Amino acid sequence: MTDDDTGAATRPPSRREFLRASGAMAGGAVAGGLAGRAAAAEPAAPDAANLPPNVPEWMKAPGEPMGNEPYGTPSVYEKGVVRNISKTLKQYISASGRTPLQDLDGIITPNGLFYERHHGGVPTIDPAQHRLMVHGLVERPLIFTMEDIRRFPSQSRIHFIECSGNPVYTRPYGKTASDLVGLVSCAEWTGVPLKTVLAEAGLEDGARWVVAEGADAAALTRSVPIEKCLDDAMLVYSQNGERLRPQQGYPLRLLLPGFEGNMNVKWLRRLKVTTEPAYSREETSKYTDLMPDGTAREFTFHMEAKSIITRPSGGQKLTVRGFHEITGIAWSGHGKIARVEVSVDGGHDWQTAELQEPVLTRALTRFRLPWHWNGEPAMIQSRAVDETGYVQPTLQELLAVRGSNHFYHNNAIWPWRIDAAGEVTNGQA
Amino acid sequence: MTDDDTGAATRPPSRREFLRASGAMAGGAVAGGLAGRAAAAEPAAPDAANLPPNVPEWMKAPGEPMGNEPYGTPSVYEKGVVRNISKTLKQYISASGRTPLQDLDGIITPNGLFYERHHGGVPTIDPAQHRLMVHGLVERPLIFTMEDIRRFPSQSRIHFIECSGNPVYTRPYGKTASDLVGLVSCAEWTGVPLKTVLAEAGLEDGARWVVAEGADAAALTRSVPIEKCLDDAMLVYSQNGERLRPQQGYPLRLLLPGFEGNMNVKWLRRLKVTTEPAYSREETSKYTDLMPDGTAREFTFHMEAKSIITRPSGGQKLTVRGFHEITGIAWSGHGKIARVEVSVDGGHDWQTAELQEPVLTRALTRFRLPWHWNGEPAMIQSRAVDETGYVQPTLQELLAVRGSNHFYHNNAIWPWRIDAAGEVTNGQA
Predict the structure, then answer these.
(1) Quick one: closest CA in B to A251, which residue?
(2) Which residue(s) pair with B44 in the sheet?
(3) What ipTM describes this predicted complex?
(4) Helix (H) or strand (E) holding A148
(5) Closest Cα in chain B, distance from residue A406 (Å)
(6) Fold adopted by A7-41+288-429
(7) CATH class of the structural domain A111-287
(8) Would you put residue A206 in left (φ > 0), alpha (ψ -120 to 50) or beta?
(9) CATH class (in words) of the domain with range B306-426
């Protein structure tokens, strides 16, 4: 045992592992580049006891018959992979549930794990009774049924939605990737471009804002600049193929790609075209930020570039030294991710990660970097750069500019600390 | 009422609808091009009774609290959108359940509705107990745990999987898009390139095939040419972000993009590298085709280019004359979809449909064409052309070449008949 790579903590090393470690793996992982990404694991060598592998119990009798689950659910062995909801809230009507990012791969969030944030609970809406009214500064005020909406020319786009308080600036920041930034998810949305519907109604002079209202008990209301409404805004009714889930606005949601989550008004019932914003509760009392000079930032629409390493991440453990892939997600409300850089030495040196193609605008982007863990303590972190050139800042940089009263739009770099035992914890905690 | 567009069968026409019909809509829909795709619906005009819309019941009290569903499910109003499973099978162990394509949008199939096809039921596999053995013509036979597999460098790719009997050539062909071709679905898969794992084991001279075996009661076994294994084949463990569903091979599946579904071996437990194929049951007794000259087609790996209009499609009804978007899905096992053409006159004239970007290789591609239905009977159909130049054939062309004993690989153009009442039925039935 002359090579660090063979120091498996959980299994006795074998001759095979030694061969692997001194062969392709060392050349691959340490190099850190794509060309050397050949080898990773230290699998067991077959021996008399397990070649061929013993026939497992589940091959000895027929499995579950089809039809028990007309709508399928995950394996019973994945029952711990659920939305991350605090168990100690005073109430669950205005609350949030986070996506378990550390358990997910790729960029699509399955609908059952899409994050949720409600201000008045989740209404149960009969789509046959639901209406969308478009009025205000329009030539033709109109009321649409869902059937009307679905007859318009449609589009499908993959976009993230993120809560602006993801995370808030208040300590403690949490233990897992989900605790920290689990209020972001990504799906393929289908619906009608909002500009198509506005053209149907006809905008009048002075149309500068569109005030959107949800059909929940909070009647959540946000004002959207007309430029966004005539750009990539959509009225969406489907999410990852099927109709929206109730928690994401069934039967109709306003989608504003890259804008803070609460503006993507769920259960959408009304669009009023106006000259001035509504200055609603959610754009005055909430979703504004008091700055150190006493002014308040308001209408902070865009979610700035952000990234997080999801594996290895808080709550996980590296059980073997040697090759580990560092992977995570990056996104920007301003467009495509141009680059993600990863540091494994506390922010001193940075390497460029590989981005999974296709890189889509205002969508999660999966990044990956091969890494050789030598068993020593390490601090790993990622920073995103978007196509505008904007670079994800450190928490210290954000706090220096925004002060201690700032609450939303924390897009700080988030380091994970790895100790000599391989335990991964929050590097800012 | 001087315009066909206003002939709404389900609601009394209003002055507003008349305005819509004689305005933007007529210019848009009839032109049939993208430039004219502005207007679609005939929404109601607000009046004293409904301006603003009456406050619905679900706004008058808080909705459902968060946390009732840690893993979310669809709206109760969507409970009919489930996998399409025949109610009259003799058994449900070796059977199939189809994706309800006519109810879906976009290209991603939600995991709960992904089609399923099993030969020995669905095993319930403990991932901690599961092993993958790689042996045969390799330098180092290896056995991997799932933890080993997940340590390899990963990739995420969006690909379709399709059963080769989708549909079979046997009448009756079914009523809905799901009945016909619901044995195709599409997801974002994450896993490790198979070539990485084979490199770990080291291929020996004479390695020409890899025989894959599943850990189900059928021990389903298929032989895969080494060229595919060293190209885009993957060992996948996640599907649309989360771990594979049991019906799709939890915890590990072989993914062979573009190859017939059963070769994408689920519950993968063994890969044996060989010189000759195994000639297993599933490549001799099944999944071969007797041709008119008495020979049999075997090893028919690729799923050829295909498309289907999902809306309007069988079982649906056009309730109004005027604008309707024709939309559907196209795919090819040989690469990207280059073009989809749509005919609304029984195959006489064909128009080029718009393809939703990004168009991905060996993935479903959503196509759309604006259409003005004048209320007269029509026959609508789509045909796909892939990047190799291959053109989806008619059923008559296929039958002429393959004869009446042919069972699999029916990729025929499928027309839908629309009668004067707007009812949509199978054009081949």
Answers:
(1) B75
(2) A143
(3) 0.91
(4) helix A146-151
(5) 26
(6) Immunoglobulin-like (2.60.40)
(7) alpha beta
(8) left
(9) mainly beta
